[in-house]
Design goal:
The protein is mainly alpha-helical and 266 residues long. Helices cover 35% and strands 6% of the residues.
Amino acid sequence: MAVGQMLLLLLAACTVMPAKDSLLNVCMDAKHHKTKPGPEGMLHEQCAPWKDNACCTANTSSEAHKDQSNLYNFNWNHCGVMPPKCKRHFIQDTCLYECSPNLGPWIDQADSNWRRERILHVPLCKEDCEEWWEDCKDYVTCKENWHKGWNWATGTNRCPWGSMCRPFSQVFPRPKDLCEKIWSNSYKYTTEHRGSGRCIQMWFDPAHGNPNVVVAKYYAWKKRSSSAGMENVTPETDKAACALPWPVLVLLPLALVMVSKGAGGC
């Protein structure tokens, strides 16, 4: 009877304390990310909103603001000087990528020798994408996909031979083109608005909390529900499942019988 009671207690403990969700509050396995998120005393300028719980260090946040950063030796000014109003969006994009612990639902395997994981199809809020495009549309670039295809002969990115510098508005005719194509579909353009709880915000006021926490929870639930065939279950009623060790599952019926017999003998 003692064995049966112990197994039942294991089951009860599991239902009270759900397993940790691997999609929430995590850092991707990439070049400069911390192994797990945590507070930073201070993050540089535009990365500051993540200082209470960040996947980046103070040094990474500082490098994110440089024209030619040591993070990736990437030069924003490959077709002339990038205007500050445009550059701030790329800085914010870098801060989100390096610092956010709320990108778990979109972490994917990377086919790269400098990182094991990347983000894919992160649903970006409509305002973030459209303001990015609006502030950069008059800047010029020679490439649509900034992830690959550069001339790295000098150690930093330069336009490929034969390419021409053209306005963003020609290379990326719509905000959707910019957000989805520039980083190989890391982002996905959405019609969802800031504060909706359905899109990731690059820009937010930390005084009101990080809105991306709720967004990550929603999409983590959606991803779990989809894989479990539970698309019609609402987030409010969906509970995190606990994976019991298989020996417990095998012995559970026996435990129930033993407890039942023990109760009958009293």
